[in-house]
Amino acid sequence: MISDKLLQARIYEKNNESSAESRPRFHFTPRTGWMNDPNGFSYYDGAYHLFYQYYPYDTKWGPMHWGHARSEDLVHWEYLPAALAPDRSYDAEGCWSGSAVTLPDGRQLLVYTGRLVTENREEGIFQVQCLAVGDGLDYEKYEGNPVITGADLPAGASVRDFRDPKVWLDETTGCYLMAVGSRAADGSGQILLFRSRDGFSWTYVKVLEACHGQYGHMWECPDFTVFGDKGLLMVSPQDMIREGEFQNAHGNMYLAGSYDKETCTFSREEVHAIDHGYDFYATQTLIAPDGRRIMIAWMQAWENAHEHPFPQDWAGMMTVPRELTLKGNRLIQNPIREIEKLRSDKVAYHNLTLNGRIKLAGISGRCLDMTVDVKPVSPEDHYEYFEIRLAEGEVRGRYYTSVLRYEPAAGLVTFDRAVSGYAGDCLPARKLKLDEDRDGVIRFRILLDKYSAEIFVNDGEYVLSSVLETSQAARGISFISQGDCRIDIEKYDMF
Ligand code: FRU
Questions:
Q1: In angstroms, what is the span from residue 249 Cα to ligand 1's centroid?
Q2: In the predicted model, what is the mean pLDDT of residues 282-288?
Q3: pLDDT, tens digit, for every residue of 62-90?
Q4: Which of 90-99, 111-120, 434-443 has the lowest mean pLDDT?
Q5: Exactly one of 4, 37, 290, 425 is catalytic; which is it?
Q6: Out of 3.30.70.600, 3.50.50.60, 1.10.10.60, 2.115.10.20, which CATH number does the structure's domain 4-335 have?
Q7: Residue 146, preceding bond cis, omega within 30 degrees?
Q8: What phi and psi, each to the nearest 5 degrees, are found at residue 435?
Q9: For this structure, is 37 an active site residue?
Q10: CB neighbourhood size of 198 (10 A)
Q11: Which among 113, 175, 270, 425 has most CB atoms closer than 10 A?
């Protein structure tokens, strides 16, 4: 039975769907209204499914629904009717983030966080884990909800910060495992592990990993994926102190280490930022039918989420889905190969010697996929810096651009949108220190869309993702070098 609240949302979104022209060219946005985290990112019944934190009625966050879309190729998405609305006592404050798995009988199980408010609101709001079962279109909330509550938590774990379940099938035991964000007695984040034979009745197993006050406070949106005998845990910590790799207050990071499947023991070996740009949060992964690990994330920082110079009837974008691999304990991320289908009108330059500033014929625009290889002219003769200016132009007497710069001597990549036209921006330039000096040799692949730039460095060793609120009239691209360097460029328009 579809509740009145869900029906109302479905009618509203159908009648108020944002126009294709108002959207980015190749980044996913909500059907209408507000979107934050990806949810239930999965492959089910022959197609990819993407659900999302959704408030259809405004471009601001509100009581959360789950929006829904389906795709054959992770590039072209078809909107489906909203899947969940906050229509029960245990989720009346919102159906918060969660994930999806397929049940043995072929139905899809959605696992999400409900917010349960006590009769005396002063006493508190508790977060609980809930289920809904469906066929890829309609979902019925489970009569046994909530299935995990404060009573199931280990000593000291917060009942108020307990959210964002990620569920997967553990091939070794045939059981489902669930990683959930939690806050330990010391107030900092931890990830709790639960197990279930059938997906409906859950028991607590252990603390999978804990922050111990080192990386922010609450750890939101865990995602855990196994690569052979390695485990990759991704989390989005709140209230991070800006230092080193971590430059967002609502940060993102991965912990890579060994994973013993028998005992579900994860031993962290390295911790790094997943993305070094301004806007990246709440990752989710799936395993594609061909075995690829594919990740998607909300391309937005909470810090600036409500500041938008251009009034649109949608708010929030996802990153382009990325293929993940692990090299030792380092995460390598590249845009899914399917995105290359959108390429057209190739323009290439080879072995161009650069010193000073140039614009190149055929290289401009706001929707493109461009790879730039940079190297010194000789091993002895190093350039001081190399720069690409994106979305550059004079609009109504004001100069706009976003600056991507590489300084080989310092091994430093900087992305700066200080003059990109985002007046509400309160965030300083993003700086990324490369681990290895490659004698001034560097590769950038830039996916530029109407409202964003995703920059992949050295074939996915690092990524910087950022929203751009620059006027669409600013279409220029220029290349600048202080000292001689040589560049190769391959650029495609994206359609
Ligand atoms: C992360 C988050 C989640 C929560 C959801 C609510 O962005 O705060 O922890 O489930 O958003 O919309």
A1: 15
A2: 98
A3: 999 999 999 999 999 999 999 999 999 99
A4: 111-120
A5: 37
A6: 2.115.10.20
A7: yes
A8: -75, -30
A9: yes
A10: 11
A11: 113
For Cα atoms 180, 181, 183, give the angle at the middle one, nearest 5 degrees. 130
CA 107, CA 133: separation in Å to the nearest integer?
7
Q: Is 403 left (phi over 0), alpha (psi -120 to 50) or beta?
A: beta
Instruction: Locate the ligand 1 atom nearest the alpha carbon of residue 97 and give its number.
Output: 10
Amino acid 96 reads: W
Taking the CB of residue 49, how many other CB atoms lie within 10 A of it?
23
Identical fold between 4-335 and 340-494:
no
Hey, whose CA ends up nearest to atom 9 of ligand 1? 220
Q: Which of the four pLDDT bands, split at 50, 70 and 90, describes residue 457? A: very high
pLDDT band at 310 (very low <50, low <70, confident <90, very high): confident
Query: What number does CATH give the domain 340-494?
Result: 2.60.120.560
Mean pLDDT of the chain: 95
3-state helix, strand, coil in the chain (%, to 5): 5, 55, 40
What is residue 120's predicted lDDT score, i.e. its pLDDT? Answer: 66
Identify the burial level of 150 via C-beta atoms within 10 angstroms of its C-beta, where 0-12 means exposed, 13-18 middle and 19 or more buried. middle
Both tokens of residue 363?
């290289």
The distance from CA 250 to its chain's CA centroid, rounded to whole angstroms, is: 12
CB 195 within 8 A of CB 172: no
Sequence ranges of the domains in the chain: 4-335, 340-494
Q: Which residues contact 477 (CB under 8 A, 6 or more apart)?
A: 359, 360, 363, 364, 365, 370, 388, 389, 390, 392
* DSSP letters spanning 90-117: TTTT-EEEEEEEE-TTS-EEEEEEEEEE
Ligand 1 neighbours by CB, cut-off 6 Å: 36-37, 53, 64, 96-97, 113, 163-164, 220-221, 281-282
Pocket test for ligand 1, best of 97, 115, 248 (most atoms within 8 A of CB): 97
Q: Over 70: is that where the pLDDT of 121 sits?
A: no
What letter does residue 366 receive in the DSSP assignment?
Answer: S
Q: Which of 34, 35, 37, 91 to mutate to test the pocket of ligand 1 (most atoms within 8 A of CB)?
A: 37
Summarised one tens digit per residue, pLDDT across range 184-231 is 999 999 999 999 999 999 999 999 999 999 999 999 999 999 999 999
Q: What's the pLDDT at 446? A: 98
Q: Are 26 and 320 in contact (CB under 8 A)?
A: yes
Q: How far is the CA of 145 from the centre of ligand 1 (A)?
A: 20
